[in-house]
Design goal:
This protein has helices spanning about 10-15, 20-35, 50-55, 70-80, 110-125, 140-150, and strands at about 40-45, 60-65, 85, 100-105, 125-135, 155-160. Strand 1 (about 40-45), helix 3 and strand 2 (about 60-65) form a beta-alpha-beta unit. With about 160 residues, the chain is α/β, with parallel strands linked by helices. The chain has one domain (about 10-160): Vaccinia Virus protein VP39 (Rossmann fold, 3-Layer(aba) Sandwich). Strands 3-2-1-4-5-6 form a six-stranded parallel β-sheet. The two termini are about 20 Å apart. The radius of gyration is 14 Å and the shape is globular. Helices cover about 35% and strands about 20% of the residues.
Length: about 160
């Protein structure tokens, strides 16, 4: 399932300006776990707002990856100091080390059988003791908070059953 976000880029840009409060709570926990001036990979970044902007506003460096040229153009205009890469999530090669990785409302674009492949790529790019946050379901916020605070788990995934 891959949407053509180029055809709706302007609408998407206008519609996605703020994080829902429950998402914001989880993101704040994620951000609090990051060392100062962290490198964060945002897979499926879209136009960078609200997620990359929130991360950037905390002083972190972002590498954003998306398959929509138009959405990436908006991200480059809004936050030119960060790196924006055109690529499909199923083809992305993650070679650098990051302090955190965000996959917000993006994983569902891949066939379910490809989810683990992408998560393994992301996992291998994390520095020791760092976190991945992936969520597509706001109903499991409390579970996500508990998992994110865990010192055992690196991946927090809030998704439908």
């Amino acid at each position: 399932m891959k949407a053509d976000y180029n055809s709706i880029a302007e609408h998407w840009r206008n519609a996605r300006k703020a994080l829902p409060q429950k998402d914001r709570e989880l993101f704040e926990l994620f951000l609090n776990e990051l060392p100062a001036n962290s490198r964060v990979l945002d897979l499926g970044c879209g136009h960078g707002i609200p997620v990359a902007k929130l991360i950037s506003d905390q002083g972190h460096r972002i590498t954003g990856v998306d398959h929509s040229e138009k959405l990436l153009t908006f991200a480059q205009i809004e936050m030119p100091e960060h790196e924006w890469l055109l690529n499909d999530l199923e083809n992305v090669e993650v070679t650098d080390n990051y302090n955190g990785i965000v996959i917000w409302d993006s994983l569902f674009h891949l066939p379910r059988q490809e989810h683990l492949t992408l998560l393994r790529k992301a996992w291998s790019a994390l520095q020791p003791k760092e976190k991945i946050i992936n969520f597509t379901n706001r109903r499991r916020l409390e579970l996500g908070k508990a998992l994110l605070k865990s010192t055992i788990l690196k991946t927090v995934s809030i998704a439908d059953d």
